Amino acid sequence: MTPEFARTLPMRRAETNTRPRFVLPPRSCDTHFHVFDPGYPCVPEPLYTFPDASLEKYLRLTEWLGIERMVLVQPTYYGTDNTLLLDVLRNLGRCCRGVVRIDDDIADSELDRYHEAGVRAIRLDLFARASWPLDDLVAYIQKMAARARPRGWHLQFYTPGATVRDLLGFFGDLEDTFVIDHMGYMKESDGLTSADFERLLKILDGGACHIKLSGPYRVVAGKPLSAAEPIGRALVEARPDRLIWGSDWPHLPDGQRDTGELLNLLADWAPPEGDLHQILVRTPEKLFYAS
């Protein structure tokens, strides 16, 4: 039987989401969403039940909020089978880009095909590799960077905060562009400290690091969303040009979560108009639309 915490809730209707408190600039981009379709095979023993989160429902949400561009991120549910992602990219065209998960031995010709379809990054699931020795993690990252580099792609890290902390020394020297999901995932409840976060801010300021303002409810789990404000503000104050925003739709497993409320957090974290435009438009363009 699926445990209760892994049972996904039905998606809320688009029009029940809070409207943005600010006018989204043209070409605003949601850099992190997932879609699910029952016509595609999932991994054995997925971590959660099938979400009722179709592309049609997501597009109704983007129309409601005023989002014009989007980046589809391959979820763990489909493993390294990117068939659905490629079909969505083919359906949506240039308004959508993709982030894939790949097997180590994938052919270069397949990666080239992905690039033509609109893929611009590789997602590294370090939750699944959290028990690996640090040297093995570094070797894996370097191998993936070598696959991304010829195509001008970047790396995206889906990573526990403790692993982020352990990799900070390596990240400081990593010259390949990379993005850390979910605000660094440095959860206080997992033992991460303000000193760890300060080290992350230094990496953000001086290297090739970017951070995704996504999943604040994951970082401050069990607390109100307002508890994420000091983290969001500190990131914006450090390097607004190294930040992107992602809805993390459909907010697994809570399909009832208000995406508009999450978008409105930006108005508190990045009140200057220039910072909002940087986070929603210019930096996503650099990462996903420059080629």
Give the termini separation.
Answer: 46 Å
Mean pLDDT: 95
* Contiguous uncertain segments of 5+ residues: none
Structural class: alpha/beta
Total beta-strand segments: 8
Number of helices: 10
The description of the largest β-sheet is:
8 strands, parallel
The string of secondary-structure elements, in order, is: EHEHEHEHEHEHEHHEHH
Share in helix: 25-40%
Strand content: 5-15%
Radius of gyration: 18 Å
What strand line-up does the widest sheet have? 1-2-3-4-5-6-7-8
**Approximate shape:** globular
Give the topology, please.
Blueprint: E1 29-33, H1 55-65, E2 69-73, H2 83-92, E3 96-100, H3 108-117, E4 119-125, H4 134-148, E5 154-158, H5 161-173, E6 178-180, H6 194-206, E7 209-213, H7 216-219, H8 229-238, E8 243-245, H9 259-269, H10 273-289
Parallel strand pairs: 1-2, 2-3, 3-4, 4-5, 5-6, 6-7, 7-8
Would you kindly provide a brief summary of this structure?
With about 290 residues, this protein is α/β, with parallel strands linked by helices. It has ten helices and eight strands.
Structure, described:
By secondary structure, this protein is α/β, with parallel strands linked by helices. The protein has ten helices and eight strands. The protein has helices at residues 55-65, 83-92, 108-117, 134-148, 161-173, 194-206, 216-219, 229-238, 259-269, 273-289, and strands at 29-33, 69-73, 96-100, 119-125, 154-158, 178-180, 209-213, 243-245. An eight-stranded parallel β-sheet has the order 1-2-3-4-5-6-7-8, sandwiched between helices. Helix 6 links the parallel strand 6 (178-180) and strand 7 (209-213). The chain is globular and about 45 Å long. The model has no long low-confidence stretch (mean pLDDT 95).
